[in-house]
Amino acid sequence: MKPALIVHGGAWTIPPDAANDCRAGCRAALEAGWRLLSKGGAALDAVEAAIVVLEDAPVFDAGIGAHLNLAGRVELDAIVMDGATLKAGSVAALQRTRNPIRLARRVLESCEHMMLVGEGAEQFAAQHGIPLCDPAELVVPRERAAWERCHQEDHADAHHLHRNRTEPRHVHQGGTVGAVAIDSAGHLIAATSTGGTCCKLPGRVGDSPLIGCGCYADAEAGGVSCTGWGEAIMKIVMAKAAVDLLRRENPQRTAQACVDLLASRTGGTGGLILLDRQGTPAAAFNTPNMAWGCVQPDGSFFVTV
Description:
Blueprint: E1 4-12, H1 16-37, H2 43-55, E2 76-82, E3 88-94, H3 100-110, E4 115-117, H4 118-127, H5 141-152, E5 177-182, E6 188-194, E7 215-218, E8 222-228, H6 230-236, H7 238-246, H8 251-266, E9 270-276, E10 281-285, E11 289-295, E12 301-304
Parallel strand pairs: 3-4
Antiparallel strand pairs: 1-5, 1-11, 2-3, 2-6, 5-6, 7-8, 8-9, 9-10, 11-12
């Protein structure tokens, strides 16, 4: 089977002076994943490699650069799901894990449970050779400044501003990241990673690490990674809804139908990427922008914001 790969850096308002960083991050993620897939590598390795790149890029709301919660700390969530077995590895409320996707994979492969959170998840990480970091390493000046403005005034997305010396201020909300891949053996893997929402209550978990909400994969239909307003996405179990619709509908109509459902039933905003079981990519969103990209049939990369 011909491999396939699609990635996203979140559905949000991307200011002009952040657009190039978002494109570069998605392209680098595609390069990292495709480097493995194009040589016969496993979809699980490719998805992990792609998302690590996105978690390490401060422009996104995952890993380094994630939003701060109400207490001024980063709390990270991630999930990876195997379309063949329907097993997932999920982690949430991590404060000392630089790359949550690595820990989510370890849960998938080495844990009898499918989801671990907080201190228990970090204990599992330490026991399985995944190093823990100082929480301060995950905080970037942009997010610290936004958190301080939210405490000085009423909380608002407008406090998340991407600035430079020549451009006016723009809203900079940051975006969840995700990837879906199929390898040459036909294995299908989907994954999502996020820092959640700014000034969320400590311990809040959104859609991203929840099986069927922020991520779902079924080798009989396809794989999905979602992004957007987590509480709304959870209400319609959007990733599972998309995979179920893929059984009878084409990929692009599936993606658009799920975003339309998100808006009509919840008033929510967001987006999703997907691959059907043949590796056909699709994406849809109802936010001003979504950073995403895929590998085209000729092996070239398509990236857009």
